[in-house]
Amino acid sequence: MPVMTDPLDLLAVSALLTEEERDIRRTVREFLDDHARPHVAGWFEAATFPRELVPELGKLGLLGMHLDGYGCAGTSAVSYGLACLELEAVDSGLRSFVSVQGSLSMYSIHRWGSEEQKQEWLPRLAAGEAIGCFGLTEPDSGSDPGSMRTHAVRDGGDWVLDGSKMWITNGGLADVATVWARTDDGIRGFLVPRGTPGFTTTDVGHKLSLRASVTSALSLDGVRLPASAMLPQARGLRGPLSCLNEARFGILFGAVGAARDCLATALDYADTRVQFGRPISAFQLTQKKLADMAVSLNTAALLALHLGKLKDRGELRPEQVSVGKLNNVREAIAIARECRTILGGNGISGEYPPLRHAANLESVRTYEGTDEVHTLVIGETLTGRAAYR
């Protein structure tokens, strides 16, 4: 029986992809193998995000790649998901950047912005000439965005924003922030360019997770914006929640990439690590671990692909995204931790990725909806009763 060299393909997942989707997957993987994988352990150790890669990601068409027009690639949802998978196979920080840039910042403008806002920002964001972030979460408002305190009031023809946002990926890098605020007309979104008086960012330090990513606090102190800064089509929580649903879709693919990288590492290590006169891959307990993880990984990959095909047909529902995000991130963390045990003491070294992936996935498990919130979304779908209200 031949050795399975790609644990992701135990169930022949690749056979379900189109030639174009496989080409995109291969192109992204090869680029990252050359430009990111050799350096990612150092970026994580130094808590540094490789900003120099941003224009290159733009040239590859990865920024807002599932959006149409304005310099965006307009690919299928499955292709976007596969790109997220390959990005997170290297590090969650890279996938987080692309998710926030495309599915939060750019999508908020593409879906809810004016034509003038789209023309001003989307081509630059797609090319990686500008960076965006998404300001929704606050220090006291995470899973309950409706309780946000940031507010905007009219002053003549302008809007004046006051408040703070927390745990904002790309915040310290962003040229423009989509900021959600409470108004007399409900929750509205505003585009806040860097350099606007009263708008400042402070990066979060001493992180134990997502270290190769910039996480920031946003402060808005009397930030004055023209009326044209408001996203005209978004009113209420439907605006920001639609953006989060886009980002969660990328996550459910990305988690598969992190898990795949861990399992590939464990398989290679188990085949070369010799104990008691033979490779540890020859022992029953190790094979059970590998088999269980391969089953979990491949079912997660099939779930992601199925949801991607639903999205491409315009049939994907929010609760289905919750199923994918909840399951795939949970399984990816379990796989990362189990792979670390196969590596033994070497598993705590930065030379090997499983523990880095496990640490990153702790953040992924929390953002864009915690396990608890997604569980309750599914529970409401099953029972018709909203337990979180």
From TrEMBL:
It comes from Pseudonocardia sulfidoxydans NBRC 16205. Keywords: FAD, Flavoprotein, Oxidoreductase, Transit peptide. InterPro entries: Acyl-CoA_DH_CS, Acyl-CoA_Oxase/DH_mid-dom, Acyl-CoA_Oxase/DH_mid-dom_sf, AcylCo_DH-like_C, AcylCo_DH/oxidase_C, AcylCoA_DH/ox_N, AcylCoA_DH/ox_N_sf, AcylCoA_DH/oxidase_NM_dom_sf. One of its GO terms (biological process) is fatty-acyl-CoA biosynthetic process. Transmembrane segments: none annotated. It catalyses: glutaryl-CoA + oxidized [electron-transfer flavoprotein] + 2 H(+) = (2E)-butenoyl-CoA + reduced [electron-transfer flavoprotein] + CO2. Belongs to the acyl-CoA dehydrogenase family. This is glutaryl-CoA dehydrogenase (ETF). Its EC number is 1.3.8.6. It is an enzyme of class 1 (oxidoreductase). Gene3D superfamilies: Acyl-CoA dehydrogenase/oxidase, N-terminal domain (1.10.540.10), Butyryl-CoA Dehydrogenase, subunit A, domain 2 (2.40.110.10), Butyryl-CoA Dehydrogenase, subunit A, domain 3 (1.20.140.10). SUPFAM superfamilies: Acyl-CoA dehydrogenase C-terminal domain-like, Acyl-CoA dehydrogenase NM domain-like.
